Amino acid sequence: MKKRFKPGLNYGLKNSVETGAIIKKDKGLLKTALVYPNTYKAGMSSLGFQTVYKLANKIEFVSCQRVFWSRQKKDAKCPKSIETGLRLDLFDIIMFSISFENDFLNLVQLLTRTGIPLRSSDRNHIHPLVVAGGVACFLNPESIAPFIDCFLLGEAENLLEPFFNEFLKNTDKKSFLKNLEKKIPGSYTPLYSNKKTLPVKVQYLESLQAITSCTTVLTADTAFKDTFLIETLKGCPHGCRFCSSGFIYRPPRIYPKKNIFAAIDQAAKKTDKIGFVSSAIADHPDIMAICDYGLKHKFQLSFSSLRADKLDNKFILALSNSNIKTATLAPEAGSQRMRRIINKNIDEKDIILAVRKLVSAGIMNIKLYFMIGLPFEEIQDVHDIVELTKRIKIVFLEESKKNRKIGTITLSVNPFIPKPSTPFQWAAMEDETILKKKVNIIKQGLKKIANININIESLKKAKIHALLSRGDQKTADIIESALKEGWTSAIRKNRGYCHSIIYKEKGVDDTLPWDFLDNRVKKKFLVREFIKAKQEKQSAPCPMIDCKICKTCI
User: Half-sphere exposure of residue 74, counting CA atoms within 13 Å on the CB side?
Assistant: First the structure.
């Protein structure tokens, strides 16, 4: 049953109203808690989380209810579900959907609050089955593996129904877990896995012809207030060497425009705002037809990100007609040398022209993403971020004066984190002392320039993120220690291990914690891309064609 209702006070939502929640109360249903280990606002902003919620509830014998993490005292009561208020420890299955490694500590907090033994090895048949999935898991599940009974790795459309069917057949939890990897491709059971001899094949949808990924539950309490989100394509064709999305989803797949039109029609009954979501919005071959359809039906459109070299005049007009006031561009680096190294196939002319077109069209505010600490980066490359920003500001000011309005340029500067399954997975994170110097170069270089804001990601949080992204099962001990004593103490007590995970460059022949995962892309292809980065050579984008024809990377 879908209804409009207030989700209650469990998560501090005094006035929140939801449309589209699914409540199944029939007796005999398999009670499954879908847990997002962060706030309600963050979880409900995740299209992946919403998709799993919809898919699980489509299964006749499953009642899937949402649970979120909230900032509470250590002795806080057991979390409860949004739909019925059922305590987390009373579900048959606890299923974590994890988008970001930084939420691993929240996962441990949630399990601790239930009173369920934290380690899988300490649980028995009376405890709920603890499952985890989501992109953070199929990049590297090992940091939290000791806490999880089983992982479902890959795209949910391939995994959920076989998993629930198999669970329903089994009365013995231990035998279910022992045999799960043989029965369901993409499953990983840390206590019983034979990963040393047989890779776990991450599941991947071959085609999106019959698939639509869009908002299930609409609420104002998200990062995109009352916005109906629609995914336009999976993955990204451009292959930036630091970005996991360009490799773990290869080849990129496009949702047919008819599916997107149907999702837009569905949104018409709920809101007047649509957000198109993907890593490469403008690469959809029918993006203008999609925009035109949305505008024709009187929707206000928004876009998760824009690529500077894809902003033709028609697309800019669609942005302007949607009354967008802020556009996000990602130069990533200030110098052309660094953009070659990271395989960001745009040049300064593309960036400057994109800013000129956007501001000229009345889009007043520009947000720019940059990274520091990238492999093979030199100090001059950081100074080049400052110089590029100054040149952008000149164009920004010229066009703003014509409009007689001036907005703001915001720099979002993030330390590079070497992510699994990318060509830079062997690189080291840069030392915190050097990163601080680079941050200072940017702040000092731009401090006297008006209408520029600079947001720097916390270097401490970035260091923790790198540990959680790249760790093996020993990292679970550090997470548990951090829960009790805080991250500073936990890392200090395990300084040698943490340093080797975060700051030590790996050889391409070294065994990495996530090597047992088969993410389709050949390791030798990633090695080739890493070597090309050292040589400052670029690679062509993935052509998004039938892989039987191409076979470059898989």
Answer: 6
